[in-house]
Amino acid sequence: MVNAFLFRLYALCGVVSGLCIVLIALVVLLRVVSRILGYYVPGLTEITGYLMAASGGFGMAYAFHKNSHIRVSMVIDRLGEKGHALLNLACLAMACLIVGYLASYLIDMTRVSYRFDDISSGDDRIKLWMPQSLVACGFAAFFVCLCHYLVMTLAEAVHVVSRRNGEGL
User: Fold this and answer.
1) Could you say which protein family the record assigns here (predicted)?
2) Predicted confidence (pLDDT) per residue in 144-160, tens digit
């Protein structure tokens, strides 16, 4: 039940990431058309940056779930089954720590921006907590994805070890 919910969450992350990319294309198109027509629309560069950061966070959760991220397998392929499992667990644990720190920092930054009513320094004068919350949610989802796969990998390793020791299924 939890796996099914999380898998749907990762699919939703892919949709949100794709929508951010479509919005980036629309913002760039708006910028081109407004320049041709002689109008200046403030904040389009900043909005594109916010959308790109949000797309990255949400996209990483989806890509990791679909196993479409880049893995350097030159070293891992040379290890035995036990070494492969240990290195995989170590890498997942390290990734959880790093992305967890990043996600907590982004959430805290968003909270502070909301509390102090921070406004961007650009021409758009947008309240910073709005785009920051998208970025923070994306990286929080990526953190959840990494932790989920770490737990699943640990559970699989425990299952394999217990089966080898004849402790049943």
Assistant:
1) Belongs to the TRAP transporter small permease family.
2) 999 999 999 998 887 76
